[in-house]
Amino acid sequence: MAKKHWFRFGIILFLTFIFLYFFFRSVKDWDKVLASLTAVRIPFFALSVVLVPLHLFTRGYRWKYLLIHEKPDVRVYNLFAANAVGFTVNLIFPGRLGELVKPLYLAKKENLRKGFCLGTVVVERTFDIFTMCALLGMFMIARPLFVKILPVDPETASNLTKWGILGVAFASVLLVVTLGLYFFKNPTLRIIRAVLSPLPGRWSAKILELIDEFIEGLKFFRSPANMLMYTLMSFVVWLGIVSYYWIFFLAYKQNVPFFFMIPYCFLVMVGASIPTPGMVGGYHYFSQVGMASVLHLDPNLAVSMTIVVHAIQLVVTCLVGYVILGKEGLSLFQLKKLGESEAP
Asked: 269 Cβ partners below 8 Å, 6+ apart?
């Protein structure tokens, strides 16, 4: 088990350094980078700091539609807090343990089944990918209308298209598997029971119980009205994130049209999904690529802006997470153990 842990940690560390190397390789003038760090319009910069937790609230409100069949009266504060502590764990520890901590924290706070909450997070991530790919698709379809205003070079446009297709393909496979688990629950459980048969009865029973709860977390697919509301809320979440970055760009006097921020945010999503500690490396590289290759910002400015926007999100999110944990007498390491207890 220890060897597996160190091997996984080594891969994550290697990826972090590789992406950081390509990120900093783009710097041509460090004096410009340092000078750009503080060259901001204070009102917009202050607003970009204040708005960091907004997506934690919109994500939490959206989550209600996945839980409504299990518990209609889940407190919005607990949904917000679960997102906050989950993202805090993701930002501090490698391996995206926060994706497990978030539903387990909510299950404990609201007395929900752990497996059920884990199932809702799979739905959440699937819709996140579909929503951002849909927004990117709209941008790529409309691109000929403003090609003179924002001339994306053919290589970058091709890469955006490839990433979008990969995202849709991955989300589609995940959706098909998820729907298969839910609508063919009994055959699925029979197969899993057969696979687990060599294990001790107590272990296999516990695993089957967790999987059964997990499948129950997908029951929202039986309600077209909930699916429609959840889809609409997914666009609210991601357009809110696009708005956040648009305001941050205004703080650096970059008057980029709102619609043009979509491909940049898509690339940021790709970078943030790489399981490095604190999103370091992947986030930085893909953010810099989006700023320089898609939006044609000066590479030195792109490096400065990426460092600052990442630092703002990390510090503010962790502060919110620490305040919630302090209020409840919990520590990050307790949450880390909670996530590791359910990790494969």
From this structure: 128, 132
- How many CB atoms are closer than 10 A to CB 153? 11
Give the torsion sign (CA, 239, 241, 244, 250).
negative
Long-range contacts, 333-340 (Cβ 8 Å, 24+)? 335/85, 335/89, 335/101, 335/105, 336/89, 336/93, 336/97, 336/101, 338/100, 338/101, 338/104, 338/105, 339/89, 339/97, 339/98, 339/100, 339/101, 339/104, 340/97
Question: Is residue 318 within 8 Å of 92, Cβ to Cβ?
Answer: yes
Distance (Å) of CA 15 to CA 18, 127, 293: 5, 26, 22
Q: Is residue 194 part of a domain?
A: yes
**Domain boundaries, position 219:** 29-342
Rg (CA), the chain: 21
Query: pLDDT (tens digit, 9 = 90+) per residue, 170-221?
Result: 777 777 777 777 777 778 777 777 777 776 767 677 677 767 767 776 776 7
Domain assignment present for 18: no
Count of beta carbons in the 10 Å neighbourhood of residue 9: 13
pTM score of the predicted model: 0.84
For the chain, how many structural domains are there in total?
Answer: 1
Q: How far is CA 232 from CA 56, 179, 225, 241, in A?
A: 16, 20, 11, 14
CB-based contact 271:245 (threshold 8 Å)? no
Query: Residue 7: inside a domain, yes or no?
Result: no
Assigned domain for 12 exists: no
